[in-house]
Design brief:
The protein is mainly alpha-helical. Helix content is 60%, strand content 0%. It is globular, with a radius of gyration of 18 Å.
């Protein structure tokens, strides 16, 4: 059986080739072609939401496909944008929403939003990356988590971002053997625990991130000795939340980046 680290490194060692392979898959290529051909026709938030293929593609590119059903929520994110520090997206600890609203900045650019280069190739590249991670998860959820953490690490600026992202949290808890039950603790106490275990400045250093992922993959395999495919698929979609209680998730939605 292939170890989680081996599975992760087989992909990460030559990530450009892995991404190129995914981009050429017929379904991915067809979806990307449709997106590039039609996104320029979108002039409003409602236009984007009415075209299910475009809407789902855009959400998946930012890892938000499991929120496709929550149109009122997503519309609020896009309507308020990111210019105002008190906007909805800026108040959410999960930075994916801010990234989404920054790319599709209807609040600032209006009907010129889809003329911006940031909604073209960067979105397609992100969609391909997300597809690669999903396909990796079919063979090894641990490797998928490692790829996700590796991609997000340099953008993490505070402990609350880890606590607000169930995938980042899963990596943290597994790496440092933190019981999932600690997710029921006070959020500030959890943040202090993250800061005690992890020097966030190290996440800017690829070598240190790689070292952390070596530890994560070893701990992951120890926790899942019979299979690489633990049920952490729920971390990427579905109703169940692993390692973070619903009440804490609700609390996190009210936090700004950096805490209360």
């Amino acid at each position: 059986m292939t170890s989680t680290m081996t599975s992760y490194r087989l992909i990460a060692a030559d990530l450009p080739r892995s991404l190129a392979r995914i981009a050429k898959e017929p379904m991915v290529q067809r979806d990307s072609d449709y997106y590039l051909k039609n996104i320029g026709k979108v002039k409003t938030i409602d236009d984007l939401m009415k075209d299910t293929k475009l809407y789902n593609y855009a959400l998946k590119a930012f890892g938000l496909e499991d929120m496709a059903y929550a149109k009122a929520f997503i519309k609020k994110v896009l309507t308020e944008g990111v210019e105002n520090r008190d906007s909805f997206a800026n108040k959410l600890t999960d930075t994916r929403y801010k990234e989404f609203a920054t790319a599709f900045n209807f609040a600032k650019l209006g009907d010129k939003t889809t003329e911006s280069p940031v909604v073209l190739k960067p979105v397609v590249d992100s969609y391909v990356q997300m597809t690669l991670e999903q396909e990796t998860g079919k063979q090894s959820d641990g490797a998928r988590l490692a790829l996700y953490f590796s991609r997000k690490a340099s953008s993490i600026t505070n402990a609350y971002e880890i606590l607000g992202d169930k995938r980042l949290l899963a990596v943290f808890q597994t790496t440092f053997n933190i019981p999932k039950q600690t997710s029921a603790l006070d959020i500030d106490r959890q943040a202090k625990m993250v800061e005690e275990k992890l020097d966030l400045k190290d996440l800017q250093d690829p070598a240190k991130v790689e070292k952390l992922l070596v530890r994560f993959t070893a701990m992951y395999d120890m926790a899942n000795p019979s299979t690489n495919m633990a049920p952490s698929v729920q971390l990427f979609g579905g109703a169940a939340e692993i390692g973070i209680s619903p009440s804490i998730l609700a609390t996190l939605q009210s936090f700004k980046l950096g805490g209360r």
